[in-house]
Design brief:
The chain is about 10% helix and about 70% strand. By secondary structure, it is mainly beta. The strands form 2 sheets. A 10-stranded antiparallel barrel has the order 1-3-4-7-8-9-10-11-12-13. A hairpin with a 4-residue loop joins β11 and β12. The longest helix has 23 residues. The chain starts with a helix and ends with a strand.
Length: about 280
């Protein structure tokens, strides 16, 4: 009986190793180029910059506030970054892409100069807290213009659904010499359309170089300005359906806001390395 069990286990191990070796041999170039689905789950180590203005009624031309330098909001974050691609149609030349990441950065500081935010004046020496939040959902549809077993280049159109917000709170000096706690907050949610392009190239069997650019410069709804969302990196296929990816992400917003609850500007940048695990099938 022991010999039968031993032989059975050996047979299972040999079968598993053989099937894995055969699976490893069923592609000449990186399999993400030929498979229908690619999913990426990663950690985005970002260097951030937040500059925001929230104009009031009394002073409609308030200065921008650097939330890192003035309010103590942390200039670095570790974010979740999830991405998906589905290739479909004849010869898989059409692609549907998705991306999601968000951040909620807060900080505290003693002001080194007066700060004006929605007609609230926080005086020099005041202790304040502040924060900036952002959530991005990207959906993109494109078509490959050049598609070979080792290369994929295409263009398309998409939408970035933006959810943006910022706040400052603290004690404010009143005319009679007393202080009062004040909280000023602005937020905006709106989709922005964009155009984009991508390129992928497999220089060797398990390696993939990739790059992508999304861009818009337009006046849409209550927002007027520019959006950039770019990434470039390299992927190593460790197993038939699993790989590891190291890339560099750059995301920048430079917008004027003219809404019912927020009139002002926002300049927001996220940039840094992204380390991901990828799955393709």
């Amino acid at each position: 009986m022991k010999k039968v069990i031993y032989l059975s286990l050996c047979t299972l191990v040999l079968a598993f190793v053989s099937s894995n070796l055969l699976a490893q041999q069923d592609y000449e170039y990186h399999p993400a180029l030929s498979d229908n689905f690619v999913v990426s789950l990663g950690i985005f180590k970002s260097d951030n910059s937040f500059t925001v203005a929230a104009n009031g009624v009394i002073n409609p031309d308030e200065d921008r506030i650097d939330f890192d330098d003035n309010v103590g909001v942390d200039g670095s974050s570790t974010l979740f970054n999830g991405q998906l691609r589905w290739k479909f149609g004849k010869q898989r030349k059409w692609s549907l892409w998705g991306q999601y990441f968000k951040n909620n950065a807060t900080g505290e500081a003693v002001l080194e100069e007066d700060v004006e935010w929605q007609d609230i004046i926080f005086r020099e020496g005041s202790f304040v807290a502040g924060g900036v939040k952002m959530e991005i959902v990207r959906v993109f549809v494109g078509r490959s213009l050049v598609k070979t077993p080792r290369q994929d280049f295409g263009v398309g159109i998409g939408v970035h659904n933006l959810s943006l917000g910022a706040f400052i709170e603290g004690e404010v000096l009143i005319d009679d010499g007393t202080t009062e706690f004040k909280h000023g907050e602005v937020s905006k949610s709106q989709p922005l359309p964009n155009v984009g392009t991508w390129w992928e190239f497999s220089p060797a069997r398990n390696w993939l170089l990739h790059a992508r650019v999304d861009w818009i410069s337009a006046n849409v709804g209550d927002l007027d300005g520019t959006l950039w969302n770019t990434v470039a990196g390299v992927n190593y296929q460790a197993f038939r359906n699993v790989g590891f990816d190291l890339s560099y992400q750059f995301f920048n917003l430079n917008l004027k806001v003219d809404g019912a609850d927020w009139i002002g500007e926002i300049d927001m940048r996220y940039s840094g390395p992204v380390l991901s695990v990828t799955a393709n099938w």
